[in-house]
Amino acid sequence: MEQATTVAEGVRAGKALSLSKKENRLAWMLIGPILLYFALFQGFPIVFGLGIGFTNWVGVTSRPTFAGLRNFVRFFQDPIYLGTLWNAFYIGALVMFFNVTIGFAGAYLLNTPMKGKTLIRSIWYLPAVTAPVATTQIFLMFIDPSSGIANRALQLVGLEPIAWGYSTFWMVTWIVAYSSWRGIGGAMILWLAGLQSIDPAFYEAADIDGASGWQKLIYVTLPSLRNITTFVLITGFTGALQIFEPVLFISQAGPFGTTDVIVHRVFRDFYGDFNFGMAGAGALVITLIIFVFSLTTLRWYQVKEQ
Amino acid sequence: MTIRKKIPWVRYIILGITCLIFIYPLFYAVGVSFMTTNQFATTPPSLIPFQRPLSFFHMRTLLLINTQREPNMPFYYLNSVLRTAWYIVWTVLISFVAGYVFARLRFRGKNAIFLILLMTTMIPPVVTMAPTYLMMARFPLIGGNNILGQGGQGFLDTYAVLLVLNLVNILGIFLVRLSMNTFPRAIEDSGRIDGANIFRVMFQLVFPIQKPILAYVAITTGVLIWNDWYVPFVFTDRPQFQTLAAAVSRLTSVAIGQYGIPDWPRIIAMGLGLTIPSVVMFAIFQRHIVSGLASAAVKG
Questions:
Q1: Which site among A133, A213, B171, B246 is 20 to 30 Å from A245 CA-CA?
Q2: A31/A172 same-domain check
Q3: Contact between chains at A140 and B262 (C-beta distance less than 8 A)
Q4: For residue A216, is it within any domain?
Q5: Domain range for residue A31?
Q6: How far is CA A274 from its chain centroid?
Q7: CB neighbour list of residue A301: distance below 8 Å, 6 or more residues apart
């Protein structure tokens, strides 16, 4: 009797072992090719990209040489590179500010049962699905010096036309306007999802305590949104710091490079100048900034949660 | 009480005005597409951009009725559609299979691999810009390159380069895995007991139920690739290899230099050909986009 059970257990254990071996093989058979492709076409460029900044590499067919930190030293000494970093920061900060605040206001207004809610939400989000290469051209047409409606509108209210393309201030304004036009809807949908996930019981409790609308916003709504705030801040910052297409298509870093941003600079370094070393250095600097920001924000979130 | 009653109106007015602002650039683009280049250049711009007589010149090009002005227009559409379809199929398939495997099967190194995959999403795309270009140019044994990647063109100016990059979407894998966590195993077990093998379980039982999240992956990938001008612009030269988005980018001042006067109706009309399909797709699938985006944020 005893022997029988041991045999049975042995058989069962053996079967389980072979089953998990089979499972292991099956899993690798399914996921192996995917991982192989990923490692080659997506993983390798990342590793390569994090290292390329330490080389001196100009031209596609030339041989790279090891440059140590020379590219990074140049990056932090050259006012052009530091300028692009600073521009990315303040243009990104402006875009993020408008996206987050207007997006929140929109979500707050929409967070109620009302007619046409889906339609309004869709219209807000619509610009986000349009092609930047096409919609930047619409904005660019608006500020065409002779046939654009921006100057026409100024003329209609009796103001002098503006040479938009020759003013840093106005170019930044239009880049920010375009980026927010395209980005507010996404932020709004995230905020709205957050607002809708708040338990209505909290508001009922606040009503019983006689809280005003503002009090409810500050003491119920905002603390409940910490999760989504972290998400919006991290994705918003990451996206805003990497603004590229609006600069490339609307201002082309002009006038005189004063609206150049870091990602645009990296693109120019590698595609215009084929200076892969400097492009790699710029990319690594952005990566480090994004890492530091994301980790700090997550840390803040965890501290607040406790 | 009176304030409470007024609020819906204030709400509607504010939201209505914002909606007009969001829609206006697209509305204006439609108007300009119905002008000739001459009409646009010679008449002062108006806030309501419709001029008599309406010109269908650019619209004809867009609808492939008369492509004299853009002889390669059929290629642009074909390439855009092919490329978008290719990426949707692969991304959805890979996200589903990998997401399922990570959610359900036990295998060696599973958690470590998943963690590494997630970490790569933290790397900003700008990092891979230059390396991808070098890799495509010097890919061994492709396009006349020798084993060391020297001597030829690699993937540059080949059709393959339009199809070979970034087929794996980690966020898609992550979302499928996440959604599998709330999926009852009992359904799969009952399938297994009935004698179905794992592929039948995956594709006949699980796939139909995971459609909403896969629809989100499909539509975001589709819009991204449809709108992508960068890959054809940077990696290919031949006009027949351009997608519609890349063709528009080649009309912009980025490609033609700052000093030419842009042919606005032409650029805007071509841009509209790019925008309308995205907008239509969005209108059809907006429910999936909104819920997918929301779940990505709330759960992630």
A1: B171
A2: no
A3: yes
A4: yes
A5: 2-56
A6: 26
A7: A226, A227, A229, A230
Return per-residue pLDDT of chain A as tens, 306 residues.
344 444 444 444 444 555 588 888 999 999 999 999 999 999 999 999 999 999 999 988 888 999 989 999 999 999 999 999 999 999 999 999 999 999 999 999 998 888 888 899 999 999 999 999 999 999 999 998 878 899 988 988 989 888 888 999 999 999 999 999 999 999 999 999 889 888 888 888 888 888 888 888 888 888 888 888 888 888 888 888 999 999 999 998 878 888 999 999 999 999 989 999 999 999 999 999 999 998 998 888 888 777
Taking CB atoms and an 8 Å cut-off, how many pairs form between chains A and B? Answer: 268
If asked whether residues A161 and A299 sit together in one domain, one would say: yes
All domains of chain B in start order, with CATH: 76-245+267-299 (1.10.3720.10)
Pair A89, A24 in one domain = no
ipTM: 0.91
Looking at residue B295, its amino acid is: S
Q: CA nearest A231: which of B119, B298, B290?
A: B298
Assess whether A23 and A89 both reside in one domain. Answer: no
**Residue B230: which of B258, B264, B254 has the closest Cα?**
B254
Give chain A positions within 8 Å (CB) of B91.
none
- C-beta separation of A65 from B146 below 8 A: no
Non-local CB neighbours of B120 within 8 Å, separated by 6+ positions: A42, A43, A46, B170
Q: Which chain A residue has the Cα nearest residue B276? A: A130
Per the CB < 8 A criterion, the answer to whether A294 and A238 are in contact is yes
Q: Is there a single domain that holds both residue A100 and residue A213?
A: yes
A107 inside domain? yes
| Residue B280 contacts A, CB cutoff 8 Å | no
Q: Is residue A61 part of a domain?
A: no
Domain count within chain A: 2
